[in-house]
């Protein structure tokens, strides 16, 4: 096994340069062209071995894909198209060079779908493998999506199903689960966890639907659907009602989980990287029709500050959603 | 002592928000406005406790200042004015909150001089304190400074003295050194190490001098003057002659170091964060006159690929500069 120490920083950089466009290599910084009427959007994630990923449960390719996807999702959540990412790496000397190349392979596989280059970064020695990604994108100022822009009466739209990523993780951790699922269903759920798709494809559809200037509120559901709705409501000083039956779930859940379990996965599981958007009812209906499977209006923005989970069929009592519920279920 | 674990990630973020402009807080990403005719410039540094800084030799304020200064210097080296920095932090739970606030204090003290905001970032748990900074700036495409743009006949300009930072470090590590220096001289050298100044002030002067379009080559001297000249020559496929007597040194060196030692500090010491620029002789002379103390033409770009250190007074024989000499002197 060739280790990072064997080839040194310069040797490693030389190997990693094939993942970057050649024109950006070799100066103190990378130069990118932005469109003249756009704002710059910047987001950073730090991921640490043993805390955010682990060789025990995640291949380096998947760790790379997920890191890139999470950052692109943050850009999508602002309405921004990606320009590039910078990658900072802290690596132990005894790490295999193969591992690092596989990490980059996974990152570029995700980025290529969105024509996003790795525009440089830094590689240093560290006792613990650390990955710091900064993604930058651009958005026309009138099309920025903000958490604080929700208004009473807005429909709450999800761009796809929730709970799939958490279900996939459970299947990976406990292979004895999901006996009733077909192999295809298992593969799809595990894929949702290992290779989540940032919903940048939603932005051109949104642009087409929204013909007059309007503020759209939203964020991504990386920390769960409940967290997204709660954060938007807090930032906008509004409340919300979510309709139990409208929250779209993977069909595989029918053969596996109770309705209560399924709902917990969807609300608190996290890492689905869908967008949760608030916009006027009429635009929301048109928008959902143009989106793929799982897109739905799942509730509406209300006055006050309460976020209520409501069951139209009254089989389940109304429930007030709070962030601490998510921690109770999965985080402790 | 209040630790990071005591107040949690949310508590720490709340404390750190006072270092960021309020309008950029609370969304998935920060939004920045760029000027319409400018290119975006991006640079990343990762710094790890025990590798790049240490509580034993560096206060958290100085570590923060130096990290910010290094990134701003990379922007200056590209000819770019800073727009903001994103800060990714990995922190052990038992780290004191005071330490983190002091780090941010040092960063903002450096950034404030250049009206540069911290525009967000990420704070996560890590077994080792890790600081990942990504700085972005903007530059008019015609004013980008590149390593690869040096041409035969160009003058090589340094924007200030070299060797001061390394001398300051030596005084910190070995207080018995520099007996002949005055307290003011010691303070100045130590200050050069602890609080280096990125040379963003050079850019408006350069803009004023350069009235017709011309390519300017350059980089910063963060890894030493020799490294900067060698990197520029490599990227531009040219050679260079450096004049021994023209390399500007701190005057304090006269009372302390032999000429040979002083030269080693200047060539290989590093972390002076001056700019090393190559431009036509006439422009170079005018440019140097507008710069402060220590700015000088230290050599010229030649055909071939040899980088020669020449002593006009012939007291020292000609010497070919290579990167490995730097490693021999200080890095082993």
UniProtKB/TrEMBL annotation, chains A, B:
The keyword Metal-binding applies. The keyword Cell inner membrane does not apply. Mg(2+) 3 binds at residues 28, 74, 220. Gene3D superfamilies: PurM-like C-terminal domain, PurM-like, N-terminal domain. Mg(2+) 2 binds at residues 45, 74. Mg(2+) 4 binds at residues 28, 43, 74. It catalyses: thiamine phosphate + ATP = thiamine diphosphate + ADP. This is Thiamine-monophosphate kinase. The gene is thiL.
